[in-house]
Amino acid sequence: MPFDGVVAKCIVQELTAELAGGRIDKVLQPESDEIVLAVRAHNKNRRLLLSASPRYPRIHLTETVRENPPVPPAFCMLLRKHLTRGRIVSFEFNDFERIIGLNIEAVSELGDYSSKKLIIEIMGRHSNIILLNDAGKILDSIKHVDSDISSVREVMPARQYMPPPSQDKLSPSGLDMIKLTEFLDSSGKSIERFLLDNIKGFSPLLCREVCWRADIDGQRRAAGLSDRERISLSEALCSVIEEIRNDAYRPAVYYEDEQHQVPHDFHCLDIKQFVFREQFDSISQVLDKFYDSRDKAERLRTKKADLYKVLSNSIDRCAKKLAIQQDALREAADREKLRLYGELITANIYVIPKNTKNVQLMNYYSESGEYVEVPLDPDLTPQANAQFYFRKYAKAKSTYINTSRQLEQTQSELDYLESVLQMLDNCTSLQEIDEVRQELVDQGYMAQKRRRHDKKDPAATKPFHYRSSDGFDILVGKNNIQNDRLTLRTARSADIWLHTKAVPGSHVIIRRNGRDIPDRTIEEAAVIAAWHSKARMSSNVQVDYTMVKNVSKPNGSKPGMVIYTNYKTAVVTPDQLLVERLRA
Q1: Distances (CA, A) of 241 to 203, 205, 532
Q2: From CA 222, how far away is CA 170, in angstroms rounded?
């Protein structure tokens, strides 16, 4: 992620303007590696986030309200003791190093003043948040680094703080192009790698940007450039350096496509290589947007992963069970032959010789009267052989009846689990995932998580809402519980219900409101139903539709399972652009 030295310079300038002189009212620690300072500055309440996350280390103002643990961690309690009611005097930042210090005038419980420094080191998995006293000794840190972890630099209470070794690179503040060119001539590295290794504060993103502006492949060897290419590279680098020196910031989040779904990159400079961007007034807004979106996407993936595992295991179990039951049915399919053998032996019991292994008997059920070869157990009498076949027939018949019923139940369970899997695929928020989890808990597939007694149940999520080109409201269930509620409670009998034929998907309702529903609206609703189904990536998807009064739920059936009659079928192809255009 490009929280490089240039972004660090930009954020320090912003925090100085926004928070210098501010009072620290609260200290919170929502995560094991994150601190939030509630600061009152310039008659505003602000939240300053400091994160030592190995993946997303950063510091910025945030609007995101994070949930805090019921018992504050020890480091949080220490910070509260030393920093609460203290004032932020200034922010320290040195020559594009990603080490930022907060100089704080602290106030003890007795009203005594002392100087404290809170340092955040933004260094990937080695990131840390460290509290120092006025003598530069470490009071504590959010991560302890002892001699077993690092023989070079310990970060432990009571140790004197030593900053990480300075990078042996050229500073953008006083970049010597002649010296840089000398390095370039002798380098065997790629251009991007050369820039990254030789200029302080540059991230891979900025190195790619320089190459993009110079119209040069950044993976080429730095020493192999022509004179013209060297001039282009020098001019591109100078343009970036000039923007840094002049604080020519244009904070933005960058995307790979125009849908702006998950951010791809961010920076405080104008990154021209990206077409799709979202501009912001401050770098904190950019960082909040970028990391909040990334964090949300990651938490969605993590939460979904647990449920995917449960569903995958349950679906595999059902599929194996179904295969066993189908094999049992195939074996029981010959049951009538067993009954026939028993009856033919009984009809010919006095003409069948003893101690024979098989016998040819006429099948009197057949119009042609052909003979059937009947296997026998030579150790049994003809009557005992007949009873053997009748017993096997009775057992096979019972197996067929019971297994048929079990197979129907297993197939129904498999259909249900695949529908839940489809609903999980469509989840776009943590609450929607929690509702799917609760459904699996209610159906006995997962254990109920222990919950805090003071935590209230959130309000149920609402169905997706679309509006057809003709002005009709179209509602789409987000999970099976919601599907039942939408179809059986919310919808009126004259509304139109839609669902993909024989494919897991959401229930879709067109609200009639006393009007005739035109074919165009039905077709658009069918496209929406296909999009919210397992057939999303298919073409020519069959979607059944009927009036809600023709839809019913069998007793004892699982959530989302219904039967319907008097339906018609539309054939459509899912269209993402149409679905997005009709979103209400």
Answers
A1: 13, 14, 49
A2: 17
For residue 518, give Cα distances in angstroms to 111, 138, 471.
75, 73, 10
Distance between CA atoms of residues 252 and 468, nearest Å: 34
Greatest mean pLDDT among 258-272, 323-337, 497-511 lies in: 497-511
Q: Using DSSP, how many helices (H) and how many strands (E) does the chain show? A: 13, 22
Radius of gyration of the chain, Cα coordinates, nearest whole angstrom: 36
- Let me know: does 569 contact 544? Beta carbons within 8 Å: yes
3-state secondary structure of 339: helix
| Cα 307 from chain centroid (whole Å) | 11
Alpha-carbon span 463 to 139, nearest angstrom: 51
pTM exceeds 0.85 = no
Q: What share of the chain is helix, strand, coil (3-state, %, to 5)?
A: 40, 20, 40
Yes or no: say if 473 and 482 are a contact pair by the CB < 8 Å rule.
no
Which pLDDT score is estimated for 317? 96
Residue environment code for 162-182, b if the CB has 16+ CB neighbours within 10 A, otherwise e? eeeeebebbebeebeeeebee
**Residue among 196, 244, 167, 270 at smallest CA distance from 10:** 244
Q: Give me the count of residues in the chain.
A: 584
pLDDT in tens, 376-387: 999 999 999 999
Record the tokens describing residue 229, joined without a space. Answer: 């290419």
In DSSP terms, 482 is beta-bridged to none
d(CA 383, CA 487): 60
Residue type at position 319: A
Q: Which fold has domain 5-141?
A: ibrinogen binding protein from staphylococcus aureus fold (2.30.310)
- pLDDT tens readout for residues 457-505: 677 889 999 999 999 999 999 999 999 999 999 999 999 999 999 999 9
Please answer whether residues 137 and 159 qualify as being in contact, where contact means their C-beta atoms are separated by less than 8 angstroms.
Answer: yes
DSSP 42-68: TTEEEEEEEE--SSS-EEEE--PPPP-
Residue ranges per structural domain of the chain: 5-141, 323-461, 464-581
Instruction: Give the closest residue to 212 by CA, choosing from 191, 197, 226.
Output: 191
Contacts of 117 (CB under 8 A, 6+ apart): 92, 101, 102, 103, 104, 131, 132, 136
